[in-house]
Write a structure and sequence with these properties.
The protein has 17 helices and eleven strands. It has 375 residues and is of the alpha+beta class. The radius of gyration is 38 Å and the shape is rod-shaped. The N terminus is likely disordered.
Length: 375
Amino acid sequence: MLNNILLNVRSVPCYDGNIHSIKEEITISRNEIVDYIKQHFPSTPTKDVAKSLNLSISQVRILAKKNGIVKCEIYKKELKKQLIFNRRKWYEKNIPVFEPSHLQEQIILGSLLGDGYISKGAQRSINYYYQEHFGESQREYREWKLSKMDNLNFSINGNFLRSASHSYFKELHSSLYPNGIKSLNETFIATCTHPIFLSTLYLDDGSLTISYSYNKNTNTVYCHPQILLYTLNLTKSENQLLANHLNHTFKTNFVVSGHPHGRQSLLKLNKEKEVSYFLNVIEPYTKDIPSMKYKTNIKENIQLKTEQIKRKYGKDITIVISSSNRKREYTDNELDRIIELKTNGETTQTIANELGRTYWAIVYKVSELKKNGFL
């Protein structure tokens, strides 16, 4: 029969007047041990039961198993909750510090309105992480981003730029994805105030496009630059909110324009002086990314297309960047020519090419001539 010696400690007075402890040995039977286990094991930590009986944890478990004594379901559920809580506290305690500087945060915010998105972490994780996918032609740009955030535990793996999971992105997710869909709101956009935010948004989601008009008389091709921000994942009202904010904060002149794809609207800069101003605003932050010059430099963009332009209009043409300052009053001869060509059924683009004007300039002038009774 298994017996166990328990040590019962009690205090007694001694001859010197002080209180001292003495130990008494108490022998209890196996049945008493089992009874104790039956009473306490189901709802008490095993180590505490073992300590009370002066047994090892293993001995208590063996006796419980032999006598069909198990932990109660309520205890197991509470234990599981506590284990999950402790694990979460340990996880959160060991999360690396994530404290982006103002510039780093502006890069993240610009990226989130561009190519970036926030996803939930592992199945048991309560936090989120940042991620963006890119093509090889943009690797240098993504490496530039990584260099700006090298102390924030970002990394590039294949064609993905990622962060670690963190509560920072959980908070951002709540702000930017209130209904599970990326949505722009005044609270979020109000924090986007630095030109590096504008730079990142543009390099992620923008393009520098060039349209051309040809003046046959002077053998000149005029290049008309535009800036487009393909914010197609935003609604028209959200794009208007974004345009208003950019124009107020950075003194730009973005307008909302229709588009057949996405949510059917994007942002646009139409005039050369507006495009040049915009590129000057972001130039301090984009100059160190040579592979992006086709987006950030009008002359570089045109240079890349020079051969194509010459194949279309001729090798001896003069290529000129059309400027808003180049606008001039129409001469009497030009007005007569517009009336003559339009009367003869020539297209607006043909007239624009001949006079070295833009398509829309001729549209407006024809409308004016009709209104005044000349057509």
